[in-house]
Design a protein that fits this description.
This protein is α/β, with parallel strands linked by helices. It starts with a strand and ends with a strand.
Length: 468
């Protein structure tokens, strides 16, 4: 079975057929670095990290581009005398990077900033003007607009008729031929800093939002590539405008369009005006990053996911079951001939992930293997336990739940130290029982229980876990 994905342009689940055999070029709209990341940003980044990981697991070489929009109306609006716009952009970019790293999101192949591709934007705009699909405003503002009426396919991504669309709100309508025309280049304004202006054939100014992604995608992936991803809220106007301007300039652009669902808060859309945003730093401070990753990735990527204060409890319990089995199995098979058991990803897991990244079904396979592995340990079947351990480890790795962060590494060191001490006490207890010194054996069990460590005896071994 080939990898299949839901293509928003075709409105259907289709086979992924890369333009170059064995290689996938993927562009994902990254953050506009105006303010701190919230959990919606994390969800979108995680979705495409899972796509990238799965395509890599299926043998594709993936060139993954995620941009940073570091010049924008909102970035400029958040600047102060003490923190100019470029300082705001860099500070917030670092916050995004820290959140991505904590979640185990792989660094992109390229992560271009919009301000580093201004010449490429100029070239694309000039091609659009030459083709009759863009025009320079006649009011001496220096603005350049895309002529929506000149492109008969405008609206194809979102299946809209231009007559039914609201006017583009990215620039005043006074110099536009049609209020739906959108800005490709924004002429310099007296109230904006000179540091946010670049020379152009139409006068000093800065790029419009949509032209940035078209230029960067083409610069790093070529005029045609395989997948363009982003949040569902970007379909219109951003992705519709990207597609129109790139196609009108003669580029093949994205072969497939993929969109992830949004995060709601108690059934409501996150909004600054409602004051209900949950910021990434707060969520990652209150929960282990692996738990956040599990929760954000557990729903199908195209569905919405609702956050409540108890949302992550189930994710925590699920990860505890996985971690508990892996730790238990590692101890039991460590000194056996099955310790290096090789395995492949289960066929059911592969089928689920191939089917438009059906992570919920893939997680069901993962937890089924955990159940079978625990049953094998209970039955004192090290061969079956080792197979389950190897398969679970592979699935965990593909899903990124094994991605280390600073706290996880510290926890791992602490666990190894605790394991050394507990294993020694278990050995002393075993010797006491073999010599029929049951008082000592019971005392060791009671001491461990008082410390929150529970022992489970089987005919050939003793397992331990931390209670609760």
């Amino acid at each position: 079975m080939s990898v299949r994905l839901y293509d928003s342009l075709q409105a259907a689940v289709v086979d992924l057929e890369p333009r170059v055999a064995g290689h996938v070029g993927m562009y994902v709209c990254g953050p506009t670095v105006q303010s701190a990341p919230h959990i919606g940003h994390l969800r979108s980044a995680l979705v495409y990290d899972l796509w990238r990981r799965w395509l890599t697991a299926r043998g594709y070489a993936v060139t993954f581009v995620r941009n940073v929009t570091d010049i924008d109306d909102k970035v400029l609006a958040n600047a102060t005398d003490d923190e100019p716009w470029f300082a705001v952009a860099y500070r917030v970019e670092l916050e995004f990077t820290a959140a991505y790293r904590a979640l185990g999101i792989l660094a992109p192949t390229y992560e271009p900033r919009a301000t580093a591709s201004i010449p490429q934007m100029h070239a694309l705009i000039e091609r659009l003007i030459a083709a009759g699909h863009a025009y320079v405003a006649t009011d001496a503002s220096g603005d350049v607009y895309f002529d929506v009426r000149s492109w008969s396919r405008y609206g194809e991504l979102t299946r809209q008729n231009p007559d039914d669309m609201d006017e583009a709100g990215d620039a005043p309508a006074r110099a536009k031929r049609d209020p739906r025309d959108f800005a490709l280049w924004k002429g310099a304004k007296p109230d904006e800093p000179t540091t946010a202006q670049w020379d152009s054939p139409w006068g000093a100014g800065r790029p419009g939002w949509h032209i940035e992604c078209s230029a960067m995608a083409a610069r790093y992936l070529g005029p045609a590539f395989d997948i363009h991803g982003g949040g569902l809220d970007l379909r219109f106007p951003h992705h519709e405008n990207e597609l129109a301007q790139s196609a009108a300039a003669g580029d093949g652009f994205a072969q497939h369009w993929v969109h992830n669902g949004l995060v709601t808060i108690g059934g409501q859309k996150m909004s600054k005006s409602l004051g209900n945003s949950v910021f990434a730093a707060d969520l990652l401070a209150s929960h282990r990053p692996a738990v956040v990753r599990y929760w954000l990735g557990s729903a199908h990527y195209r569905s919405s996911i609702d956050y409540t204060p108890t949302s992550l409890n189930e994710a925590q319990a699920a990860l505890d079951r996985i971690d508990g089995f892996l730790a238990r199995a590692s101890r039991r098979i460590a000194d056996t001939r099955f310790a290096d058991e090789a395995a492949e990803l289960p066929a059911e897991f592969v089928a689920a992930m191939d089917d438009d990244l059906a992570v919920p079904q893939a997680l069901a396979v993962l937890h089924d293997r955990v159940r079978l592995g625990n049953a094998a340990l209970d039955a004192d079947d090290p061969a079956a336990a080792a197979r389950a351990h190897a398969e679970v480890s592979l699935m965990v790795s593909v899903l990124g739940f094994d991605a280390p962060d600073a706290d996880a590494r510290a926890d791992d060191r602490a666990h190894r130290a605790l394991s050394t001490l507990v294993d020694r006490l278990i050995a002393e207890r075993r010797e006491a029982r073999e010599s029929r010194d049951f008082a000592t054996a019971d005392r060791i069990r009671d001491d461990l229980a008082a410390a929150g460590i529970v022992l489970e005896d089987s005919p050939t071994a003793t397992d331990w876990s931390i209670d609760g």
